Every structure is written in C-alpha cells, then in structure tokens.
C-alpha cells in the first residue's frame, strides 16, 4: 500500500499540472472504487479552479475555489497517470484541465477511494477527526509521543502504525525508523525513555525525508504520476532483507506480527 512518502510524491507530481488550473472535464468511468464516487462529483468539480494540493496522512487533497476538497486514497494499487495516450480499463477517474492536460486515477484492485468534502469541514471529517499529528509537522515530538504512549504495554511498532498516535506511517517506514533509532519493534511502547523517543522522532523524519527525495518505494503497482518508479527500496536498511547482513554484520530477521512482516536486526535493536 502506498504510504506517506508515496502520497507526498504523488501530490508533488500533480501540482505542476493541476495547481491554478480550471477543470473542464470530470469523468467517473465506473460507479465506485472501494466505495461509490460522490454522486455530485462531476457537477461540483467541473468548472472549478484548483487552488492547492496537499497531503494529510496517506490521503491526497485537491482544493478548489468552490470551497470543496477532493480527497483521494490510493488504496493498494492506485496511482495517477499524467497525459496517458489512452484511457485504459483501470483508469477509473479522468480530470481534464483547460489547457488540455489529462490526469487519470488508475486503480486495478479498486481499493482506493475518492471523496468530496467541504474544505472548511475537513478537520471534522470522520477519517481525519481521529488522526494524530503529521510526523513531518511541528506537533510531532518526543513529548507528544511520551504522553501518547504513557502506560502502553503494546509493542512500539504497533503503536507507530496506529494512525491515532501519528498519522501516515506504514509498515516499511516504521521498520526502517526503528532500526535507525536502535529500538526493538517488540519493545513495550510505554517503557521507552524520552531520550530514545527523541532519537526515534529524528529517525522517522530522516527516513521519511529520504524516501520522499527518492520518490517513495515501488512495490508492485506504485509509480509516480510521471511514470517513474520510486527507488527508496535501494536504500532499505532492513525491510525486505531477511537473511541479508545488517550494517553491523548480523543477519536481518523477519517475523509476522498480526499479519504484517516485521524486519529487524537482533543486535542493533536489542531493546
């Protein structure tokens, strides 16, 4: 599933084509993805001018001058294509600007979603109302984590994947950040000291920043809107590297935690 860096990369890739442009065609080419397209999507977006693009957690946001925001989630296999030669069977939503540029939301598995929310109501929109702070924003800190994790016996990895604790983190980047910070993924979250949480916050920001710079990690279907693949997978420290040598020389291990693969180094991440 595309995680925060992939969505951030997607939003940045769409901005030069969409920002400040008027939409002259909005075509939902099927009734639904994971859930139905908004019934009035075409009516509310056709003729609207895009005023900005941004990201919240793993969602992309396209703001318009009509006070509406189109919120998209890429699901398991979604990606946007810019100026495709033809619209294919998996291009389920097409947007055309007044300059004749076409953007197609391609989602073979149809686990993604598109919603239309009044911009002023975004913070109260149910999927957003429960989200924690952005890991690259000013509200994410060691003090915030310390308070959120106080008394929690659950493993730190599980807590970081909880979107109520911090928004947008997924399996790949949590594994990578925990390794960088030298924290065992099974460590009880409430027993991690403030200095170690400071290292963890720094590691999360460093890993996410490097992943965004690299265009994200391509797994199966993900590609940037330009069609380029994300190449952060070439920098993975532990993720997907079971049996290979860690930087310390020990073999990287993998275990299954609630249906997710956890990759770690038993020497670097002893506690």
Question: Brief description of this entry?
Answer:
This protein has 271 residues and is an alpha+beta fold. It contains seven helices and ten strands. It has a four-stranded antiparallel sheet.
Would you kindly provide a written description of the structure presented here, covering whatever features stand out?
The strands form three sheets. A four-stranded antiparallel beta sheet has the order 1-6-7-5. Strands 2-3-4-8 form a four-stranded antiparallel beta sheet. It has a two-stranded antiparallel sheet with strand order 9-10. Helix 4 (142-149) crosses helix 7 (194-213) and helix 6 packs across helix 7. It is an alpha+beta fold and 271 residues long. It is 25% helix and 21% strand.
Query: Judging from the principal axes of the Cα atoms, what is the shape?
Result: elongated
Largest sheet at a glance?
4 strands, antiparallel
Task: Kindly report how far apart the N and C termini lie.
Answer: 28 Å
Low-confidence stretches: 218-223
Order of helices and strands: HEHEEEEEEEHHHHHEE
Task: Report the strand count.
Answer: 10
Radius of gyration, in Å, reads 20 Å
Number of helices: 7
Portion in beta strands: 15-25%
What fraction, in percent, of the residue positions are helical? 25-40%
Q: What's the rounded overall pLDDT mean? A: 92
């Amino acid at each position: 599933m595309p995680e925060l860096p992939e969505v951030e990369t997607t939003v940045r890739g769409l901005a030069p084509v969409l920002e400040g442009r008027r939409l002259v065609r909005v075509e939902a080419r099927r009734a639904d993805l994971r859930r139905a397209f908004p019934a009035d999507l075409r009516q509310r977006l056709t003729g609207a001018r895009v005023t900005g693009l941004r990201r919240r957690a793993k969602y992309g946001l396209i703001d318009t001058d009509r006070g509406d925001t189109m919120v998209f989630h890429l699901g398991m296999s979604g990606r946007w294509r810019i100026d495709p030669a033809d619209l294919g069977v998996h291009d389920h939503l097409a947007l055309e600007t007044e300059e004749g540029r076409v953007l197609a939301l391609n989602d073979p598995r149809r686990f993604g979603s598109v919603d239309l929310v009044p911009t002023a109501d975004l913070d109260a929109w149910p999927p957003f109302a429960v989200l924690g702070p952005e890991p690259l924003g000013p509200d994410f800190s060691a003090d915030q984590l310390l308070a959120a994790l106080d008394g929690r016996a659950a493993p730190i990895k599980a807590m970081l994947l909880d979107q109520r604790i911090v928004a947008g983190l997924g399996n790949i980047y949590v594994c990578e950040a925990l390794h960088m910070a030298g924290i065992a993924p099974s460590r009880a979250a409430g027993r991690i000291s403030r200095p170690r949480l400071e290292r963890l916050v720094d590691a999360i920001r460093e890993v996410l920043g490097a992943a965004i710079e690299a265009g994200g990690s391509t797994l199966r279907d993900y590609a940037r809107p330009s069609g380029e693949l994300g190449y952060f997978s070439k920098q993975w420290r532990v993720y997907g590297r079971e049996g290979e040598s860690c930087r310390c020389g020990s073999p990287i291990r993998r275990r299954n935690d609630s249906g997710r693969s956890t990759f770690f180094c038993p020497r670097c991440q002893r506690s």
